[in-house]
Design goal:
mainly alpha; 5 helices
């Protein structure tokens, strides 16, 4: 395979992964008061659309954790595509497993470093619970990418 043809994809996947990591870092750098205001605006929009469906404290908690899951889902997705492209993973089952494991380790370490980073931000703290919640997001996306890749290869084999 001509490696030069793969460079544009590699650039897009690495740029996307880096951008998502920067967004996570930016939101983690916000002091507690700013972070609460940002989620408060979103909470007001949810209440305006759905009405007062649950206590505000619970709604705020769910919105914050949904944000964790969503952003780490995106990180896991882009990281898995990046690792797969960098490894030129095509068919070998062992390569797909390495791709998934490499992505999983990177995302886990980034989630841990993000929580550690928050311990230096005024009013914020790092929580193992948040790493686990982040893990829901990146594990789901990694699994989906691997299943998609496996399904795509089965289709190619049939042709």
């Amino acid at each position: 395979m001509n490696r030069k043809k793969e460079y544009p994809k590699l650039f897009v996947y690495s740029s996307t992964t880096l951008l998502i990591a920067i967004v996570i870092f930016f939101f983690s750098s916000q002091p507690a008061k700013e972070s609460s205001q940002a989620s408060g605006y979103f909470m007001e929009m949810v209440i305006a659309v759905l009405g007062n469906i649950m206590p505000e404290a619970l709604l705020s908690f769910l919105i914050r954790k949904a944000a964790h899951i969503t952003i780490y889902f995106l990180l896991g997705w882009s990281m898995t595509l990046l690792v797969g492209q960098a490894m030129l993973v095509k068919t070998a089952s062992i390569q797909v497993k390495k791709m998934g494991l490499t992505s999983l380790v990177f995302c886990f370490l980034y989630a841990c470093s993000d929580e550690w980073h928050q311990t230096f931000v005024p009013g914020r703290d790092g929580a193992l619970r948040d790493v686990c919640i982040d893990g829901i997001g990146f594990c789901c996306s990694i699994i989906l990418v691997l299943l998609w890749k496996k399904r795509r290869e089965k289709r190619r084999e049939k042709l």
